[in-house]
Amino acid sequence: xxxxxxxxxxxxxxxxxxxxxxxxxxxxxxxxxxxxxxxxxxxxxxxxxxxxxxxxxxxxxxxxxxxxxxxxxxxxxxxxxxxxxxxxxxxxxxxxxxxxxxxxxxxxxxxxxxxxxxxxxxxxxxxxxxxxxxxxxxxxxxxxxxxxxxxxxxxxxxxxxxxxxxxxxxxxxxxxxx
Length: 178
Hints:
Layout lengths: L3 E7 H18 L6 E6 L3 H16 L4 E5 L8 H4 L17 E9 L3 H11 L6 E9 L11 E5 L7 E6 L5 E8 L1
Parallel strand pairs: 2-3, 2-4, 4-5, 5-6
Antiparallel strand pairs: 1-8, 7-8
Helix pairs in contact: 1-2
């Protein structure tokens, strides 16, 4: 049986969401002093670079940007088997930073927990905030996003797919139904 894919955000919608999230981050943090964006590989890292560019356009300041790979911090490694390990790149000290962790889709919260565990191995940020493009619900852990592009309530058997082009820019968000 074929899966049904429905577009819920197009490229323009994604751009609007990134711009809005950028403004919300700047408002909440009263600017971008001591701010760092860290994207979760793979997906969140691409969105973090878009947020960095958007904040740069708004404020004229390039905030620190990093990426974190959570493979070794996952709580389901035994079930998933061998997963490719990516590279964590945080080229600045985390101590005292206001970190905005960025991911494409928030679902159970387990990926975010893994990312926070990984960040703590690199330093002690003053705060960790969470920005996601899509929040689909179904939390298994008490984690919520501070900045959300769009809330998309889903059934557990449904999926959300963020489609990236060959330049790693998000071009579409799809709701996938079985």
